[in-house]
Amino acid sequence: MLFHWATIAMIPGMLALAGLLRERAPRTANLGAAVGMVGSASAVSLFMTDFYDLALARNLPADQAVAATAAASDLPGFVYGILLPAFLSHAGALILTVSLAATRVAPWWLPVLVTVGIAIPFLTAEQPPAAQSTGALCQLVAYGWAALRTLRTPLPARG
Predict the structure, then answer these.
(1) CB–CB of 141/109 below 8 Å?
(2) Which UniProt keywords apply (predicted)?
(3) CA-based nearest residue to 115, from 98, 102, 128
């Protein structure tokens, strides 16, 4: 459930990152936000499938539950409509954080932490959850910095 809500939070997070970048690189900000928000929305639906997998595992014999999950994963709509587009959230985050660092709006370590945070779960897939969660901690630090920066950004005066 935590991953589901964290992924939902990435949608406004992409907008906030784009807002930090908009003044110096508006086209890149728009591209990163669009790619990231489409990916994050797809990732939200991807995490919802976990609940169906859990229900299958609890209510069917193991071989039937595994077969049903495999059949769903083999559907082209799942792979090309949900799974692959969900990875666009990573692409959007990288477009935005690398651009923020390149324009000196953000420190150099921001895209490094985001990249490491994205890579760790894939590199530690066979490790205990404590090792895998270090990727989320890297992203928490990076996006926490961005959240503080966004909250401290002065609003333009209205005339």
Answers:
(1) no
(2) Membrane, Transmembrane, Transmembrane helix
(3) 98
